[in-house]
Every structure is written in C-alpha cells, then in structure tokens.
Amino acid sequence: RISNKPVANVKLYWLRLRKLIFLLLFLQMPFHLFVFSIISVSLDVTVEAVIGGSVVLPCSSTKHDLKLQDIDVFWRDKDSETIYDFIKGTDFLESQDPRYKNRAQTFPDEYKRGNFSIKLINLTHADAGEFICYITPSNEQETVHLIIKENDNQSTEEANGVPKTQLDWWQILLICVCILLVLILPIAYFKWKQRKRTPAPI
Predict the structure, then answer these.
(1) How does residue 44 score in pLDDT terms, banded at 50, 70 and 90?
(2) β-sheet with 129-136: strand ranges across
(3) Given a cut of 80, is residue 186 above it in pLDDT?
(4) Residue 73 near residue 138, CB atoms below 8 Å
(5) Using CA atoms, how far apart are residues 106 and 108, in angstroms rounded to an integer?
(6) Tell me, what's the pLDDT at 141?
(7) Are 34 and 72 within one domain?
(8) Given a cut of 50, is residue 179 above it in pLDDT?
(9) Which of 40, 43, 89, 127 could form a disulfide with 68 if both were Cys (CB 3.0 to 4.6 A apart)?
(10) The pLDDT of residue 165 is above 50
(11) What is the extent of the structural domain holding 138?
C-alpha cells in the first residue's frame, strides 16, 4: 500500500504557505493604501507672511464622518521636525521641536469641523520653507509653502525713511543756524562799530 503521508505533508505545507502569503499581503496592504491615498489627496498651498508677524498654515480633513478620538494629525517642517501633534483627540507636544515651543497654536474649536490648521507667531527667516500636515486614518496630506518677506514698514524706513528723515533734520538745523548767523552777525558788527566810535569817558 502506497502511503499518503508525503502528499498530506505537501498539502499541509501548501496551506501554511498560503496563510503566510495572505498574512504578508494583509500586513502590507495598509501601507500601499496609505501611499496611494497620500498621492491621490495631497494638496499644495502657498502662504506669505512678514518677519516678526504671524501666519496660519491651513490643514483640513475632507472626511466629516470621522470621530476626533480616531484621528491623528502630524505637523512637520522641511527638516521633518515636529511642530505639533494631535493624537486621538488630544494635543501631544512631548516631541515638539524647541524652535516651535510657545510659537505654534491650534484652533481647538475647529477640530470638530475637521480643521487642524496651526498658527505660527514671531516669524523669522528660518521659518520659510515647506510644512506638511498628515491626517490619519483618512490618509490625507497637505503641503504648505511658507514665504517670508520683509516687513513693509521696516523696509520702507530702512530704505527711504530713517536716513532721509535724519538728513532732513540736519538740513533744517543747518538752515536755522545760517539764518541766525545772518541776522545776528550784522547786528553784532553794527554795535561793535558804535562802541568803537564812541569815545571813552574821561
């Protein structure tokens, strides 16, 4: 009688292999879906601000059926440093980069509307660049390009205002001195002449 043991072993191995393949595919599927979703819903926005001012970096979810306790939001800068995290309905700042401490603000009243925008204050030239907002599990991404410009008032004063104003005051002062000299010198000279002509008392 021919033994069916080798055949049974082959079937067993085949079943285990199928389970292993299925498991690997199952584990890898979310990652592929995540990458595909990121590409399909990625948005780009450009905003402008001035040095020393503030700016709102927009980020909103289009999925309005998600609950806050199921949502994670991750804000990252151009160097992949943490700006602000919102995890399971709670602000999470333990990994926040020191550069953004007390400078990044959110709008908690807007969370329920899917608005996870942040506000950066006390802007510097170093803040210019790209910011990325990730929202999971809806797998949404918004890229914000921040352009930092010189403060118009400061640049105007530096370029045209302050030096010119100082020069104008010096000109005015010089003109006033010249006018006084023109008025005073003839009078002083005339009085000096009178005193010279008047004979001294004996």
Answers:
(1) confident
(2) 43-50, 140-149, 129-136, 72-76, 82-87, 90-92
(3) no
(4) no
(5) 6
(6) 92
(7) no
(8) yes
(9) 89
(10) no
(11) 42-152
